[in-house]
Please model this.
Amino acid sequence: MGTPARSSLPPAADAVRAALPEWWPVLLGLAVMFVPTFYYLFTGPWIGEEQGHGPIIFGLALWLIYRKWPDMLAATTPPRASWTGWPVLVLGLLAYLLGRSQKILMMEIASIILVMAAVLLIKRGGRALRVLWFPFFFMLFMVPLPSEFVAAVTMPMKMAVSWATEHILWFLGYPISRSGVILQIGQYQLLVADACAGLQTLLTLEALGLFYLNLMRHPSAFRNIALALFIVPISFSANVIRVIVLTLITYYYGDAAGQGFLHGFAGMVLFVTALVLILSVDSALQWYVRRRHGDDGSGHGGPGSGQAAPLRTKEAT
Model:
C-alpha cells in the first residue's frame, strides 16, 4: 500500500487552505462590507504621512493571524461558539454604520477590528481570541486618535525634537537657530510638522517595537519590558535623526529637494533608524542578561560558566 502524499506547503498555509470551505462565506461577507472602506483608506488617509502606517499595521496583523492560525485551530477543536460574539458584532456594526455615515474615521476603522473579533468569537469561541489576542491588539495602532488629543500631545514632542535638532547641529558647527518649532538654517526656514515628530509617529514606532518583541518571543521578562520601555526614547531619537536629515538636505540642496522626493526618503530613514536602534538595544539587553545569568556573584558561576554545580541529595528520614 502506498503512503499518502505529504503537502509541500508550510503548516500555516496548509491549515488556511483546509479551513477555506468553512470560512469563505465569512470572508466574502467581510469583503462586501469593508471593500468601500478600504478603497477610501487606500485613496485617501493611508496615502498621507500621518496615517501612512495604517496599511503596514493591517498587513502585519493579517500575517500574524495567518501565522498563528494552526495554533488557534488546535486550541479550538472542537469549536465552542461564544455568545459574547453577538454583542460585539452588534457593537461593531453600529460603529461601522455611524462611522461610515458621519465620516468618523476612528469609528469606521475600529469597526473592522470589532467585527473580525466578533466573527472569531461566534465561530470558534473565546479560546480562539485568546490565541490571536496580539494581532487584534496590534491593529489598534492603525485606529486614528481624536485630532484635539493628537494636537495637544504632539506640540511638546515637536518642541523637544526641534530643540534637540538645533543643539546637535549647532554643536556640529552649522548656522542654525530656532523659534518654537521653526528652524532657521542658512537662508532656509523649516517648520517641524506633525508628521515629522508627532504622536502618530511615536505610536507607529511603538507598534514596530511590539511586533519585534512578539516575533522574537524572548523568554526573559526583564528583556521584554526593558525593550518596550526603550521604544519611547528610540522613537524620539529616530525623529531627531529624521529632522536632522531633512534640515541638512535643505541646507545643501535647497528647499525643493527637502520638500520633494527626499522628504519621503527621510521617512524611510526614520523607520530604518528606529529598527537599527531597536536591534542594537535588544543586543545590549541580551548581552546584559547573559552576563547576569553567567555570573550570579556567588563565586560558583552560573549556567554555562564552565563550573559544575554541586549535587544536592535529600536525606532519608
Q: What stands out?
A: Residues 34 and 236 are 35 Å apart (CA to CA). The two ends are 60 Å apart (CA to CA).
